[in-house]
Amino acid sequence: MASRCLCPFGQKHLFYFIPLAHYFYFYFVYTVTIADKTDKRRIKLRTLGINEIEDIALGASLLGAGGGGDPYIGKLMAMDAIKTCGDVTMLDPEEIADDDLVIPIAMMGAPTVLAEKGINGSEYKRLYDMVSQFYGREIRGFFPIEAGGVNSMLPIAASARLGIPLVDVDGMGRAFPELQMVTFTLGGVSATPMALTDEKGNTCIFETITNKWTEDLARAVTMTCGGSVCIALYGMDGATMKKWGVKNIITRSQKLGAAIRGIKQLDKSQTPEASFLTQTGGYKIFKGKITDVLRETTGAFNLGHVMLDGISEYRGQQAEVTFQNENLTATVNGRIKATVPDLICLVDTETFIPVTTDALKYGKRVMAVGLPCYDLWRTPQGLEMVGPRYFGCDTDYIPLEERLSGKEIASCTK
């Protein structure tokens, strides 16, 4: 009996079919094995390149609420790393295994110092080595500790140079001035072991009894090192990150940045200002010209206030915004209109580009905009850590939406 060819493409194509079948077999086995090892997580392999950096830096500077560092400086660091080492792989938090070690990486210090005293690029490897040696295992992902022009960019630069994925999560959903002010503290996560290094090569690892002690001791070292350092802290497993982290913060920053950049082309039926407020979900607090700026660098913080004289519909009125790296309170005609933990952002009245506290200048026309904070910050535990009374403002926290509806208010006394 004649033999029958089992190849669906015929006898003459059997030579090509066999290696192709082997390829699909091993591909199938490899895929199933990887899926089994990762609890059947589907890796999306989203990458960040030069084009994405522009929008992320712009959007993150809005979420920085005046702090988080100069977005131009941060953007340059990330772009240089990507040009040199290639695009960065970004993962959704759910794509990290529950037992993977992940850690935020950030700059600590006053934004005015960060603009003049940058990093040389060797800090990332030193921090990685210090942390991984302490835990005795590899770091599987970096992520930003906060949103901001520098601190959203630094983990991107570190991921590019070390070839480690970036995770789309942070610990604030905005920027705050002190290390313990993260959602992970609310979840009982220790800030230490915290690795610290400066551009000269000085290094140390902190182990402290509370996260507030971490802030106080690290702040003292930061001052000794010249006002800015690079840090890695809050090492945790993937399960803890998923439970307590503010998810998709980098994606949100990118969307906000794209909206701001193209604000005048988005909706022709609205004014650019109305379109900005719609796209960002913001609340208009005030619009005015900067008439006075008091800013001093104390304890590795930018401290001060900015005074505004009203323009347009606010002509004849006055406003004041106080800040400690980030904007803390906004007062109009002696009445509080917004406080931390809600975001208070100053943006250029023409371009809507955010204006950080270290870039405030006399004569600049800005619009003060409020954005609601992450839900956890409105809990009693969150307000105890980052509410207005912590920063010396003699008022209880009232949500931004209620204050601007006219149901409030008292005055803020320092």
Notes on the protein architecture:
This protein is α+β, with helices and mostly antiparallel strands. The protein has helices at 14-37, 50-63, 71-85, 111-114, 123-135, 154-162, 183-186, 211-224, 238-244, 249-261, 263-266, 272-280, 380-386, 400-403, and strands spanning 46-48, 88-91, 101-109, 141-143, 166-167, 169-170, 194-197, 203-206, 228-232, 236-237, 246-247, 283-298, 301-310, 318-324, 326-332, 335-339, 343-348, 365-371. The protein has a 7-stranded antiparallel beta sheet with strand order 16-15-14-13-12-18-17. Strands 3, 4, 7, 8, 9 and 10 form a 6-stranded mixed beta sheet that branches. Strands 1-2-5 form a 3-stranded mixed beta sheet. The longest helix is centred in the N-terminal third of the chain and has 24 residues, at 14-37.
What composes the largest sheet? 7 strands, antiparallel
Number of helices: 14
The outline comes out as globular
* Estimated structural class: alpha+beta
Give helix % range.
Answer: 25-40%
Layout of helices and strands:
Layout: H1 14-37, E1 46-48, H2 50-63, H3 71-85, E2 88-91, E3 101-109, H4 111-114, H5 123-135, E4 141-143, H6 154-162, E5 166-167, E6 169-170, H7 183-186, E7 194-197, E8 203-206, H8 211-224, E9 228-232, E10 236-237, H9 238-244, E11 246-247, H10 249-261, H11 263-266, H12 272-280, E12 283-298, E13 301-310, E14 318-324, E15 326-332, E16 335-339, E17 343-348, E18 365-371, H13 380-386, H14 400-403
Parallel strand pairs: 2-5, 3-4
Antiparallel strand pairs: 1-2, 3-9, 3-10, 6-11, 7-8, 7-9, 12-13, 12-18, 13-14, 14-15, 15-16, 17-18
Helix pairs in contact: 2-3, 2-10, 3-6
